[in-house]
Write a structure and sequence with these properties.
Blueprint (H helix, E strand, L loop, with lengths): L4 H12 L8 E11 L2 E6 L4 E5 L5 E8 L9 E8 L5 E9 L9 E4 L7 E11 L4 E7 L2 E7 L5 E6 L10 E8 L5 E9 L8
Parallel strand pairs: 4-13, 6-11
Antiparallel strand pairs: 1-2, 1-12, 2-3, 4-11, 5-6, 5-8, 7-8, 8-9, 9-10, 12-13
């Protein structure tokens, strides 16, 4: 069954009594340590943050992938930036396992760079190899991308907290509650030196 991260997140917030108005932020960096459910991350900026995980924290794992791994039935997300003549240039690609399809479906601004955007959807059309041309279908429309073979790509699937070892690359989605505590709603952790393409 197709699942979307946003409904799952809304349910988690309701169960934990959190205010729906709380804003998610993304944190990218390297695991320094994990003590039970407290995860300390050294951010790319050099700052250190500690996220408190809970029974509803969603764990994902990112493993190495390639553009050629995209299949006609795939669900993918593309982080893009402005390119020549108004076209969007794909910077990173994530390919999701069947259980994670629906993650962030649609288009939205992203925080990986100026005017960056994340587009996620199901493969509606795929052709070519160098580059591969894909059309993503999502609830509000479609988007087309040319994906070069060397575009950084990761495979995303269900993960577990045991993967959060020092040195692992992570992308964490967190929110700060009224008491000032940073809560982790989702943590994607990379294996084999991989940085999740989120």
């Amino acid at each position: 069954m197709i699942r979307s991260f946003l409904p799952a997140l809304a349910a988690a917030l309701a169960l934990t009594g959190a205010a729906s108005a709380e804003t998610l932020a993304r944190y990218r960096g390297t695991v320094e340590e994990r003590v039970e459910d407290a995860l300390t991350v050294r951010l790319d900026s050099g700052e250190r943050v500690t996220l408190q995980m809970n029974p509803y924290t969603r764990m994902l794992i990112a493993t190495p992938g390639k553009v050629r791994d995209i299949k006609p039935e795939s669900y993918v997300s593309v982080i893009s930036a402005p390119g020549a003549e108004g076209a969007r240039t794909a910077r990173r690609v994530a390919i999701y396992s069947p259980s994670e399809r629906g993650f962030e479906a649609g288009e939205r601004p992203w925080d990986t760079g100026p005017d960056a955007r994340l587009t996620a959807g199901w493969i509606a059309d795929r052709s070519g190899r160098d580059p591969m041309q894909v059309r993503l279908r999502f609830p509000d429309g479609t988007a087309d991308f040319k994906l070069q073979p060397d575009t950084p790509t990761t495979q995303i699937g269900p993960g577990e907290k045991a993967l959060l070892v020092p040195g692992a690359q992570v992308v964490a989605f967190g929110r700060t509650d009224a008491a000032g505590k940073l809560n982790g709603d989702l943590v994607a952790v990379g294996r084999l030196g991989v940085r999740p393409s989120l």
